[in-house]
Write the structure tokens for this entry.
Amino acid sequence: MFKMIKLFFKFVFFVIFLIVTLIVAGNFQIIHSKSGFHILERESWGFSNFYVNTTDWNAIDFAKHPRIAGKLVKDRFEAVFQDTSDTVKQWWNGVSKDHNLPEIEKIKSEFDKTLSDLNRRLNKEDIDLDTYKKKLKELKKATEKKIDAILEALEEK
């Protein structure tokens, strides 16, 4: 008799668990992005696209899914910051390699300050993404010129 009651409660628990899982799956989407996982409430109940992986999406994919893109705007900026940060670190290591000079360190601090300002302006939406990329290229080019001038001056000595 005890086994029957135990089996009955297991069955009831399983049915309740299944119902709750179906309700959650029908009302929400799991969005996997570069910054992690996000839960997005659906506009209408359904099971299509329960899990969406946006880690490899490009601008066209985001344009096709404006609701998901709207949810991930902050994530998009974080991805841009992370990509920029990684690229800048690699570029800086290549440029300043074997040159531990105070002048180059000064240029680096100016570069970091300007980059932080650009990131802040993008985050506050004072500038758009295209302007940000353009200004970043200009900053990189100007910094390379400064470093080249210092290295040329050292070679002349």
Observations:
- The chain has a mean pLDDT of 78.
- The two ends are 97 Å apart (CA to CA).
- The beta strands are 28-33, 36-41, 51-53.
- DSSP finds six helices and three strands in the chain.
